[in-house]
Each structure stands twice: as structure tokens, then as C-alpha cells.
Design a protein that fits this description.
mainly alpha; Rossmann fold; 2 domains; three-stranded parallel β-sheet; 3 strands; 9% strand
């Protein structure tokens, strides 16, 4: 397993030491920027992409083919590549889900065979700032979807 982060996630995880822990756990460098020409290619071939947790912004960008950072570029290419599964966990609130474009974005991803870890049984939606504090993310569901996608 290798990890590629959005620039914001890369900044946060480097600042709190988690990027180093991820690199140690996976045995691969954590990326959030494109490789430069001549840089090593230490990551193995990908058999599944997992985008988790995905903001409403990330979901919209994926649905609309906007690949403006390293992580989105990789996943956007995977969506257009036959046989490479993509699993997305949208970590959103009720206001995001009411946006007029939200359902269209989800349907676009579903039509591309993206597996969405989404619904009240996985991640109940709360109004902004009304969710329980420190609500655990549904990592077991995300991993179950990834396992099923690669079976």
C-alpha cells in the first residue's frame, strides 16, 4: 500500500508527524507532489485507489475530471482506466448533500463504476457543526469496499 495526499492533507500530516508514520508503515514515501523527471518510481503498480476521507470539493473535482493536484491526477486517470477500481468515502455533512450538484456528482462517479462508501448506514449526515465530536471514520467499511473491489 502506498499513500498519495492532497496538498492540504500533506501539509497537515507532515506538520503532525503522521506522514512519516505512514511512510514507515507502508514502506513507501508519502507523496503530495508530482515526481520530477528522473525521480525514482518507488511505488508498486496500483491495484485499487481509495479516496478517503473525501471532501465535497474532492468529490466534485473527481466527478468533473478536475485533476489539479497529484492525488486527483492519479485517481482521475484511474477512473478512465479499465480494470483499476476506485473506492471513494465522501466525508460530508447534510448541507453538502443538499447542494443541487451533489447527487449529479455521485451519479457521475457511479456511472464510471466508482464504488462509493456512502449512506446513512456508513456515515449518517448531520447539519454543519452538529455531528458528535471526534466521530470515528468508517475505516472498516472503506477497507471492505476496497477488498471487494480487488477480489
Amino acid at each position: 500500500m502506498a499513500v498519495t495526499l492532497t496538498p492540504a492533507a500533506g501539509s497537515w500530516l507532515r506538520a503532525n508527524g503522521e506522514a512519516e508514520r505512514l511512510a514507515k508503515a507502508t514502506g513507501f514515501p508519502v507523496r503530495d507532489e508530482p515526481r520530477l523527471p528522473g525521480d525514482e518510481r518507488p511505488h508498486p503498480p496500483v491495484d485499487c485507489y481509495v479516496v478517503a476521507p473525501a471532501s465535497a470539493n474532492t468529490v466534485a473535482k473527481l466527478a468533473n475530471g478536475i485533476a489539479d493536484n497529484q492525488a486527483l491526477t492519479q485517481v482521475s486517470e484511474a477512473i478512465g482506466t479499465r480494470g483499476v477500481p476506485v473506492v471513494v468515502f465522501p466525508r460530508v455533512n447534510a448541507a453538502h448533500a443538499r447542494h443541487p450538484a451533489w447527487e449529479r456528482n455521485l451519479e457521475t462517479l457511479r456511472s464510471a463504476d466508482v464504488k462509493l462508501v456512502y449512506g446513512p448506514d456508513v456515515w449518517p449526515l448531520f447539519e454543519p457543526r452538529d455531528a458528535p465530536p471526534r466521530r470515528p471514520l468508517p475505516w472498516s467499511s472503506v477497507l471492505d469496499y476496497a477488498e471487494a473491489a480487488t477480489a
